[in-house]
Amino acid sequence: MNATRRQILEGLGAVSLTALAAGGFATDAQAQSVDVDKLMEPGPLPELTLGDENAPFKVIEYASMTCPHCASFHAETWPQIKKDYVETGKVYFVFREFPFDPFSAAAFMLARCAPGGKHLEMVDLLFKTQRQWTGGNPLQGLQNVAKQAGFTQESFEKCLTNQSLLDGINKVKNRGQRDFGVRSTPTFFVNGEKVEGAISFAAFEELLK
Predict the structure, then answer these.
(1) Alpha-carbon span 9 to 17, nearest angstrom
(2) Counting beta carbons within 10 angstroms of the beta carbon of residue 192, is it exposed (0 to 12), middle (13 to 18) or buried (19 or more)?
């Protein structure tokens, strides 16, 4: 079920995300392939990318911002992948939204609205501070994180009430689910090979051989 703007605004003000976050969505690693050309076709929103688009390996991640396994991957594995493979021109990385709840959708909206176009930097910050904004008061928690990233109160509220942006994020999720069989997070596609779960750096390297 997709998040609605009303759910986001109501939920952020009243509900703790601790239970949601603790549940997680990752499953045991399973692999299957999808058509790479179809996978790389432009989606409903501009792609969030890093690296050389002509790199020999195309890696796509579908993630949910409240998923603890996604946060763990971005803390423990992603920095090494970025250093050894993205920054050396071996991997073109694409990050796509797959929100499982209104709070994840709200966090993705803030990443899309990040000042200075620092969208992926905002994603990293939100994963790094996930425990801070998924417990207690989510609205205040997200406001605190957004403030660190340069949001004003006005830009924060404007972003979270942007219906077209929320619709776009839901379309990214629906496309992943409908066309590529995404059903859990994180889910990766490495040159079309689908892998579910927060893979280790060693496992990631095996996929690039």
Answers:
(1) 14
(2) middle
What pTM was estimated for this model as a whole?
A: 0.86
Distance of CA 77 to the CA centre of its chain: 15
Q: pLDDT tens digit string along 114-160?
A: 999 999 999 999 999 999 999 888 889 999 999 999 999 999 999 99
Tokens of 168: 């776009």
CB atoms inside a 10 Å sphere around CB 181 = 12
Shortest CA distance to 200 belongs to which of 76, 116, 93, 61? 76
What is the C-alpha R_g of the chain?
16
Identify the DSSP state of 149. T
- Condensed to tens digits (0 to 9), the pLDDT of residues 22-53 reads 333 334 444 588 999 999 998 899 999 999 99
